[in-house]
Amino acid sequence: MRKFTQLNSVVMPLDRANVDTDAIIPKQFLKSINRAGFGPNAFDEWRYLDHGEPGMDNSQRPLNMDFVLNQPRFQGAQILLARENFGCGSSREHAPWALEDYGFRVIIAPSFADIFFNNCFKNGLLPIRLDAEKVDTLFKSIAAQDDFKLTVDLENQRIALPDGTVYAFEVDAFRKHCLLNGLDDIGLTLQHVAEIQAFEAKRHAAQPWLVA
Amino acid sequence: MNAQTLYDKLWNAHVVRQDADGTALIYIDRHLVHEVTSPQAFEGLKLAGRKLWRVASIMAVADHNVPTTGREQGIADPIARLQVETLDKNCADFGVNEFKMSDVRQGIVHVVGPEQGATLPGMTVVCGDSHTSTHGAFAALAHGIGTSEVEHVMATQCLVAKKSKAMLVKVKGTLGKGVTAKDVALAIIGKIGTAGGTGFAIEFAGSAIRGLSMEGRMTLCNMAIEGGARAGLVAVDDNTVNYLKGLPYAPKADVWDQAVAYWHTLHSDAGAVFEAVVELDAAEIKPQVTWGTSPEMVVAVDGCVPNPADMTDPVKREGAERALRYMGLEANTPITEIQIDKVFIGSCTNSRIEDLRAAAVVAQGKTVASNVKLALVVPGSGLVKAQAEAEGLDKIFIAAGFEWRDAGCSMCLAMNDDRLNPGERCASTSNRNFEGRQGQGGRTHLVSPAMAAAAAIAGHFVDISKL
Ligand code: SF4
Q1: Structural domains of chain A ordered from first start
Q2: Rounded average pLDDT over A151-169
């Protein structure tokens, strides 16, 4: 997994609540058996005017210039800002894969769906929960200031605004540790092999029908 | 000992180890696998040279991409075919038990697991699919996981998790005529919102829930995720035990009694404390129809499309305006005046035998309305299909003008050829009405099977409680 420590970036304002994972990456792209390459199809139905299918040359497709992802000002943004319940719906990890492949590293919203939130940390993405009022302030600041950028610092759990305001954010200690160091869970869990084996043996002895 | 919730009991029984900050390793008993979210996990294992921790815990089936007609000819779409073949190959390489497309047991993973007795009370059940919450109907701690977690469970038989909070949703009284588990689920989501259950495991209780069949409880728990909760739960009772008896993967004679004795402990203790409690009165729940692009955008069938102008919260108002634009609906339109183009009866929410029976009762001796271009019935599994055919339900549907298909996810998410065209409006028994879910530009209204069948016959929504 890619490490995340800190970044300073333009912020993409996606002013919607309940952005679901079907919207982040539509189902036709889920037929892929790979992990990479979903970025050009992130938000496909909102981003292009035609219907996208796997294997198309996306650079030739007509863009929906009203959609924020296509606006020149926000090109290269590594931070995505959205409203509540971001990432709801399907558990598809293709959604964080697509966001990461597009170039996002941080997503800020008042709330996230549980599975999506979890999936982000497995892919080097940092989802940050911020009060609805602060999120609203950020949307307004982006609208008001052309060169608005944020600095996100995971180590110190801080977001710095251009005017010097600092927002603190919460992050689970274990997930922070994994993200800062680019650690994958499986290797860490396998340090506990003996404990898992002992647990399993006891469980199967007590509930033998589970082994059948 | 302190009174425990059902969720406490299930959680505590599976903690392998726990760190001071609450991060735990949870042991997983059953892992269900399908073609869409597993290829990258199997590949990860292969690349790292890792083995499956416990092969026997895995059951695999292809469901999302499979065609529902002409299956003998294989899958026409080469990309979908490769994905299904990849599952076949991975299962063969790793020795995983898989129900192939030609197997009568093939079907939607959340229908197949319980039907086989692979989901048992007291288990932890995971699958790379959010509707794994379905299995909580058996008092199993069941939730959806991402592909990285699929790989993690394959390699370690564990999941890294933190305990959720517990919510009790109590539905008292008796459901009225024509009101089903689907309507209860939608009414609950309408009340708590699609994020209302975020961070919670929801236990459904109360006399109306006790009165539901196992099929109905699965429908309810299936939709827990649409209320934001990763897991839904219903305590064990005689319904649960009777359903499981004799199923292929259920405990056999020698350990059956031992298992049943344990299962009967799987309920919340009197006095157990929940972090949140929501109560509904069953008598007040009417058949539900969604009008927007989120399951919380729902009203009773005798109601009207709401007017965004009446909404005070600006984010909600904006969402409602956008939804009405997308849905091509005017504020204040009576729901029963909304005409439909297609009907879909199926999905892991509503494709079990009881659902098909309820739809067939409505369709019997009637004809699908002329404005309805396509009315699909897609059984949840090959076994459900066979059972329905043994009862003659297929003949009722076909005589009425419905199409009778093979098992799979089908138009629930339109990964195969079953889909809506732009602008088409569908009465659907599935679980998500998101933009584009059933086909780009398609408009989905979520309803129960009987409501969907009635809409197919009338060509618009009708209040089945008044039929
Ligand atoms: S039927 Fe629909 S919701 Fe259920 S598993 Fe299939 S695609 Fe997902």
Answers
A1: 6-181 (3.20.19.10)
A2: 98
